[in-house]
Predict the structure of Peptidase A1 domain-containing protein.
Amino acid sequence: MKIYIGTPPIEKFAVADTGSDLIWVQSSPCENCFPQDTPYYDPNKSSTFISLSCDSKPCSLLPPRQHRCEKSNKCEYLYVYGDNSYTIGELGTDSINFGSNDVTFPKSIFGCGHNNVVTFNRTSKVTGLVGLGAGPLSLVSQLGDSIGHKFSYCLIPSYSNSTSKLKFGDEAIINGNGVVSTPLIIKSSHPTYYYLNLEGITVGEKTVQTSQIDGNIIIDSGTTFTYLEPNFYNDLIASVKEVIGVEEVKDPPTPFSFCFIYGDQTKAPDFVFHFTGADVILKLENVFAVFENNLSCLWIEPSNGLSIFGNKAQVDFLVEYDVEGKKVSFAETDCSKN
Protein backbone atom coordinates (compact mmCIF):
# COMPACT_ATOMS: atom_id res chain seq x y z
CA MET A 1 0.00 0.00 0.00
CA LYS A 2 1.04 3.60 -0.58
CA ILE A 3 1.36 6.03 2.33
CA TYR A 4 2.75 9.55 2.67
CA ILE A 5 4.74 10.40 5.80
CA GLY A 6 6.03 13.68 7.17
CA THR A 7 6.11 17.38 6.27
CA PRO A 8 6.74 17.72 3.40
CA PRO A 9 5.01 14.36 2.73
CA ILE A 10 7.25 11.60 1.33
CA GLU A 11 5.69 8.72 -0.62
CA LYS A 12 6.37 5.26 0.81
CA PHE A 13 5.22 1.76 -0.18
CA ALA A 14 4.60 -0.69 2.65
CA VAL A 15 3.24 -4.22 3.09
CA ALA A 16 -0.24 -4.25 4.67
CA ASP A 17 -0.43 -6.90 7.40
CA THR A 18 -3.57 -7.81 9.36
CA GLY A 19 -1.55 -10.10 11.64
CA SER A 20 0.44 -7.31 13.34
CA ASP A 21 -0.06 -3.81 14.73
CA LEU A 22 3.06 -1.67 14.35
CA ILE A 23 3.45 0.75 11.43
CA TRP A 24 7.13 1.19 10.54
CA VAL A 25 9.37 2.35 7.71
CA GLN A 26 13.11 2.00 7.16
CA SER A 27 14.73 5.15 8.51
CA SER A 28 18.11 6.81 8.57
CA PRO A 29 20.53 6.27 10.09
CA CYS A 30 20.10 2.67 8.93
CA GLU A 31 22.34 0.07 10.59
CA ASN A 32 20.90 -2.97 8.81
CA CYS A 33 18.24 -2.48 6.14
CA PHE A 34 16.91 -4.48 3.20
CA PRO A 35 17.37 -2.95 -0.28
CA GLN A 36 14.82 -0.35 -1.39
CA ASP A 37 14.81 1.87 -4.48
CA THR A 38 14.03 5.17 -2.66
CA PRO A 39 15.86 7.05 0.12
CA TYR A 40 15.17 6.06 3.74
CA TYR A 41 12.71 8.17 5.74
CA ASP A 42 14.72 10.82 7.58
CA PRO A 43 12.98 12.15 10.72
CA ASN A 44 15.33 15.15 10.74
CA LYS A 45 13.89 16.30 7.40
CA SER A 46 10.26 16.29 8.57
CA SER A 47 9.11 19.39 10.45
CA THR A 48 6.27 17.45 12.12
CA PHE A 49 8.20 14.42 13.44
CA ILE A 50 8.21 14.01 17.22
CA SER A 51 10.27 11.37 19.02
CA LEU A 52 8.36 9.52 21.77
CA SER A 53 9.78 9.09 25.25
CA CYS A 54 9.87 5.96 27.38
CA ASP A 55 7.11 7.19 29.67
CA SER A 56 4.74 8.10 26.81
CA LYS A 57 1.46 6.18 26.52
CA PRO A 58 2.22 4.82 23.01
CA CYS A 59 5.46 3.30 24.33
CA SER A 60 3.49 1.45 27.01
CA LEU A 61 1.23 0.01 24.27
CA LEU A 62 4.09 -1.97 22.72
CA PRO A 63 4.02 -5.66 23.73
CA PRO A 64 5.90 -6.49 26.95
CA ARG A 65 9.57 -7.33 26.34
CA GLN A 66 9.37 -5.55 22.98
CA HIS A 67 10.48 -2.11 24.15
CA ARG A 68 13.29 -0.75 26.25
CA CYS A 69 14.63 2.52 27.61
CA GLU A 70 18.23 3.63 27.32
CA LYS A 71 19.88 6.75 28.72
CA SER A 72 18.38 8.92 25.98
CA ASN A 73 14.86 8.16 27.33
CA LYS A 74 13.70 7.49 23.77
CA CYS A 75 11.19 4.68 23.28
CA GLU A 76 13.17 1.92 21.58
CA TYR A 77 11.27 -1.06 20.22
CA LEU A 78 12.07 -4.60 19.10
CA TYR A 79 9.07 -5.95 17.18
CA VAL A 80 9.20 -9.62 16.22
CA TYR A 81 6.91 -11.45 13.77
CA GLY A 82 5.76 -15.07 13.68
CA ASP A 83 8.29 -15.96 10.94
CA ASN A 84 11.14 -14.43 13.03
CA SER A 85 11.32 -11.30 10.89
CA TYR A 86 11.95 -8.26 13.08
CA THR A 87 12.38 -4.50 13.16
CA ILE A 88 14.36 -2.54 15.75
CA GLY A 89 14.10 1.23 16.03
CA GLU A 90 12.52 4.21 17.78
CA LEU A 91 8.86 5.07 18.19
CA GLY A 92 7.70 8.50 17.07
CA THR A 93 4.78 10.41 15.60
CA ASP A 94 4.37 12.22 12.29
CA SER A 95 1.68 13.17 9.80
CA ILE A 96 0.43 10.32 7.61
CA ASN A 97 -1.97 10.42 4.68
CA PHE A 98 -2.89 8.11 1.83
CA GLY A 99 -2.88 10.40 -1.18
CA SER A 100 -2.91 14.03 -2.19
CA ASN A 101 -6.68 14.48 -1.81
CA ASP A 102 -7.09 12.53 1.40
CA VAL A 103 -7.28 13.79 4.94
CA THR A 104 -3.97 13.95 6.80
CA PHE A 105 -3.75 12.24 10.17
CA PRO A 106 -1.33 14.26 12.34
CA LYS A 107 0.62 12.61 15.16
CA SER A 108 0.24 9.10 13.81
CA ILE A 109 2.33 6.65 15.85
CA PHE A 110 4.90 4.64 13.90
CA GLY A 111 8.38 3.15 14.12
CA CYS A 112 11.56 4.45 12.57
CA GLY A 113 13.21 1.13 11.72
CA HIS A 114 17.03 1.22 11.92
CA ASN A 115 17.67 -2.55 11.95
CA ASN A 116 15.21 -4.57 9.87
CA VAL A 117 15.32 -8.23 8.83
CA VAL A 118 12.27 -9.51 6.94
CA THR A 119 11.44 -12.72 5.11
CA PHE A 120 8.16 -11.67 3.48
CA ASN A 121 7.99 -11.44 -0.32
CA ARG A 122 8.63 -7.88 -1.41
CA THR A 123 9.76 -5.75 -4.31
CA SER A 124 12.41 -3.05 -4.11
CA LYS A 125 9.55 -0.53 -3.77
CA VAL A 126 8.71 -1.79 -0.26
CA THR A 127 10.08 0.39 2.55
CA GLY A 128 8.27 -0.99 5.60
CA LEU A 129 5.09 -2.48 6.95
CA VAL A 130 1.66 -1.20 7.98
CA GLY A 131 0.05 -3.17 10.81
CA LEU A 132 -3.72 -3.51 10.31
CA GLY A 133 -4.31 -5.73 13.36
CA ALA A 134 -6.82 -5.17 16.16
CA GLY A 135 -4.31 -3.87 18.74
CA PRO A 136 -4.06 -0.20 19.82
CA LEU A 137 -1.00 0.75 17.72
CA SER A 138 -2.37 -0.50 14.38
CA LEU A 139 -3.38 1.87 11.61
CA VAL A 140 -6.99 0.67 11.90
CA SER A 141 -7.12 1.39 15.64
CA GLN A 142 -5.40 4.77 15.27
CA LEU A 143 -7.85 5.86 12.55
CA GLY A 144 -10.69 4.36 14.61
CA ASP A 145 -13.92 6.36 14.44
CA SER A 146 -12.75 8.36 11.41
CA ILE A 147 -13.04 5.17 9.29
CA GLY A 148 -15.93 3.63 11.22
CA HIS A 149 -13.55 0.83 12.26
CA LYS A 150 -13.92 -0.66 8.76
CA PHE A 151 -11.40 -1.57 6.06
CA SER A 152 -11.20 -3.91 3.09
CA TYR A 153 -8.62 -5.22 0.67
CA CYS A 154 -8.48 -7.07 -2.62
CA LEU A 155 -5.29 -9.10 -3.17
CA ILE A 156 -4.08 -9.64 -6.73
CA PRO A 157 -2.45 -12.84 -8.08
CA SER A 158 1.36 -12.82 -8.20
CA TYR A 159 1.37 -12.72 -12.03
CA SER A 160 -0.83 -9.59 -12.24
CA ASN A 161 0.63 -6.21 -13.25
CA SER A 162 -2.05 -4.41 -11.24
CA THR A 163 -1.78 -3.49 -7.52
CA SER A 164 -3.72 -4.81 -4.54
CA LYS A 165 -6.39 -2.43 -3.25
CA LEU A 166 -6.90 -1.26 0.33
CA LYS A 167 -9.91 0.87 1.33
CA PHE A 168 -11.14 2.45 4.56
CA GLY A 169 -14.49 3.60 5.97
CA ASP A 170 -17.59 3.71 3.77
CA GLU A 171 -15.48 2.91 0.69
CA ALA A 172 -14.57 -0.42 2.30
CA ILE A 173 -18.14 -1.72 2.56
CA ILE A 174 -18.91 -4.60 0.20
CA ASN A 175 -22.45 -5.60 -0.67
CA GLY A 176 -24.49 -7.24 -3.41
CA ASN A 177 -24.92 -10.81 -4.56
CA GLY A 178 -22.34 -13.35 -3.50
CA VAL A 179 -21.24 -11.61 -0.28
CA VAL A 180 -20.92 -13.98 2.69
CA SER A 181 -20.12 -12.92 6.26
CA THR A 182 -18.78 -14.67 9.34
CA PRO A 183 -18.35 -13.47 12.96
CA LEU A 184 -15.08 -11.73 13.83
CA ILE A 185 -13.70 -12.69 17.23
CA ILE A 186 -11.04 -10.73 19.11
CA LYS A 187 -9.50 -12.46 22.13
CA SER A 188 -8.02 -10.56 25.07
CA SER A 189 -5.22 -13.16 25.21
CA HIS A 190 -4.09 -12.19 21.66
CA PRO A 191 -5.53 -8.69 21.05
CA THR A 192 -3.77 -8.18 17.70
CA TYR A 193 -5.37 -11.09 15.85
CA TYR A 194 -8.66 -11.35 13.96
CA TYR A 195 -10.05 -14.80 14.75
CA LEU A 196 -12.67 -16.59 12.67
CA ASN A 197 -14.39 -19.90 13.33
CA LEU A 198 -13.66 -22.58 10.74
CA GLU A 199 -16.18 -25.42 11.02
CA GLY A 200 -14.81 -27.60 8.24
CA ILE A 201 -13.40 -27.89 4.70
CA THR A 202 -15.06 -29.69 1.80
CA VAL A 203 -12.97 -31.21 -1.00
CA GLY A 204 -15.27 -32.25 -3.84
CA GLU A 205 -18.04 -34.10 -1.99
CA LYS A 206 -16.03 -34.98 1.13
CA THR A 207 -16.13 -32.76 4.23
CA VAL A 208 -13.63 -32.75 7.09
CA GLN A 209 -14.87 -31.18 10.33
CA THR A 210 -12.80 -29.21 12.83
CA SER A 211 -13.09 -30.12 16.48
CA GLN A 212 -12.66 -26.62 17.91
CA ILE A 213 -15.11 -23.73 18.07
CA ASP A 214 -15.06 -20.10 19.27
CA GLY A 215 -12.35 -18.70 17.03
CA ASN A 216 -9.96 -21.41 15.92
CA ILE A 217 -8.15 -19.67 13.02
CA ILE A 218 -6.80 -16.17 12.40
CA ILE A 219 -7.16 -14.38 9.07
CA ASP A 220 -3.87 -12.82 8.02
CA SER A 221 -2.99 -10.85 4.88
CA GLY A 222 0.73 -11.02 5.73
CA THR A 223 1.14 -14.84 5.76
CA THR A 224 1.42 -16.70 2.44
CA PHE A 225 0.33 -20.22 3.38
CA THR A 226 -2.78 -21.40 5.19
CA TYR A 227 -1.85 -23.31 8.36
CA LEU A 228 -4.13 -25.89 9.98
CA GLU A 229 -4.03 -27.81 13.25
CA PRO A 230 -1.96 -30.97 12.49
CA ASN A 231 -4.69 -33.61 13.04
CA PHE A 232 -7.16 -31.59 10.97
CA TYR A 233 -4.48 -31.09 8.29
CA ASN A 234 -3.83 -34.85 8.13
CA ASP A 235 -7.56 -35.53 7.71
CA LEU A 236 -7.69 -32.96 4.92
CA ILE A 237 -4.71 -34.52 3.09
CA ALA A 238 -6.34 -37.94 3.34
CA SER A 239 -9.48 -36.45 1.73
CA VAL A 240 -7.45 -34.80 -1.06
CA LYS A 241 -5.72 -38.10 -1.87
CA GLU A 242 -9.06 -39.94 -1.88
CA VAL A 243 -11.08 -37.39 -3.87
CA ILE A 244 -8.44 -36.56 -6.49
CA GLY A 245 -6.96 -40.06 -6.53
CA VAL A 246 -3.31 -39.07 -6.37
CA GLU A 247 -0.15 -40.30 -4.67
CA GLU A 248 2.03 -37.99 -2.61
CA VAL A 249 5.39 -36.99 -4.10
CA LYS A 250 8.34 -37.87 -1.88
CA ASP A 251 10.73 -34.99 -1.08
CA PRO A 252 8.44 -32.11 -2.18
CA PRO A 253 10.19 -28.83 -3.08
CA THR A 254 10.73 -26.40 -0.19
CA PRO A 255 8.64 -24.87 1.40
CA PHE A 256 5.78 -27.24 0.51
CA SER A 257 4.71 -30.27 2.55
CA PHE A 258 2.28 -31.98 0.17
CA CYS A 259 2.76 -32.27 -3.61
CA PHE A 260 1.51 -34.68 -6.26
CA ILE A 261 1.53 -35.22 -10.02
CA TYR A 262 -1.80 -34.22 -11.52
CA GLY A 263 -2.46 -34.27 -15.25
CA ASP A 264 -5.76 -32.46 -15.83
CA GLN A 265 -5.97 -29.36 -13.64
CA THR A 266 -9.42 -28.51 -15.03
CA LYS A 267 -10.87 -31.49 -13.19
CA ALA A 268 -9.59 -30.38 -9.78
CA PRO A 269 -12.40 -30.37 -7.19
CA ASP A 270 -13.67 -27.28 -5.39
CA PHE A 271 -12.29 -26.53 -1.96
CA VAL A 272 -14.88 -24.90 0.31
CA PHE A 273 -13.87 -23.38 3.64
CA HIS A 274 -16.92 -23.49 5.92
CA PHE A 275 -16.67 -20.54 8.28
CA THR A 276 -19.60 -20.00 10.65
CA GLY A 277 -22.33 -18.52 8.42
CA ALA A 278 -20.05 -18.22 5.37
CA ASP A 279 -19.01 -20.82 2.80
CA VAL A 280 -15.95 -19.49 0.95
CA ILE A 281 -15.38 -21.37 -2.33
CA LEU A 282 -11.72 -21.26 -3.33
CA LYS A 283 -10.41 -21.45 -6.87
CA LEU A 284 -7.56 -23.66 -8.04
CA GLU A 285 -5.00 -20.83 -7.68
CA ASN A 286 -6.05 -20.25 -4.05
CA VAL A 287 -5.22 -23.82 -3.12
CA PHE A 288 -2.54 -25.17 -5.50
CA ALA A 289 0.83 -23.95 -6.71
CA VAL A 290 1.28 -25.48 -10.18
CA PHE A 291 4.77 -26.19 -11.53
CA GLU A 292 6.10 -27.77 -14.73
CA ASN A 293 5.78 -31.51 -15.32
CA ASN A 294 2.24 -31.42 -13.84
CA LEU A 295 3.55 -31.02 -10.29
CA SER A 296 0.95 -29.47 -7.98
CA CYS A 297 1.62 -28.43 -4.38
CA LEU A 298 -0.84 -27.38 -1.70
CA TRP A 299 -0.76 -23.84 -0.27
CA ILE A 300 -1.81 -25.46 3.03
CA GLU A 301 0.58 -26.61 5.76
CA PRO A 302 0.31 -28.14 9.24
CA SER A 303 0.69 -25.46 11.93
CA ASN A 304 3.02 -25.59 14.89
CA GLY A 305 0.97 -23.03 16.76
CA LEU A 306 -1.71 -20.74 15.40
CA SER A 307 -4.01 -21.83 12.60
CA ILE A 308 -3.93 -19.16 9.87
CA PHE A 309 -6.09 -18.39 6.82
CA GLY A 310 -3.28 -17.02 4.64
CA ASN A 311 -3.13 -14.62 1.70
CA LYS A 312 -2.95 -17.16 -1.16
CA ALA A 313 -6.41 -18.35 -0.13
CA GLN A 314 -7.66 -14.74 -0.21
CA VAL A 315 -6.41 -13.75 -3.70
CA ASP A 316 -9.24 -12.40 -5.91
CA PHE A 317 -11.62 -11.92 -3.01
CA LEU A 318 -12.87 -8.62 -1.65
CA VAL A 319 -12.37 -9.04 2.11
CA GLU A 320 -14.04 -6.54 4.45
CA TYR A 321 -13.29 -6.24 8.17
CA ASP A 322 -16.00 -4.55 10.22
CA VAL A 323 -14.27 -4.43 13.58
CA GLU A 324 -17.08 -2.63 15.43
CA GLY A 325 -19.77 -4.79 13.81
CA LYS A 326 -17.64 -7.88 14.57
CA LYS A 327 -17.81 -9.52 11.15
CA VAL A 328 -15.58 -10.35 8.17
CA SER A 329 -17.16 -10.52 4.69
CA PHE A 330 -15.94 -12.18 1.49
CA ALA A 331 -16.96 -11.64 -2.15
CA GLU A 332 -15.24 -13.32 -5.09
CA THR A 333 -14.03 -10.81 -7.67
CA ASP A 334 -11.21 -9.98 -10.11
CA CYS A 335 -8.90 -7.84 -7.98
CA SER A 336 -6.82 -6.84 -11.02
CA LYS A 337 -9.87 -5.00 -12.42
CA ASN A 338 -11.82 -3.88 -9.35
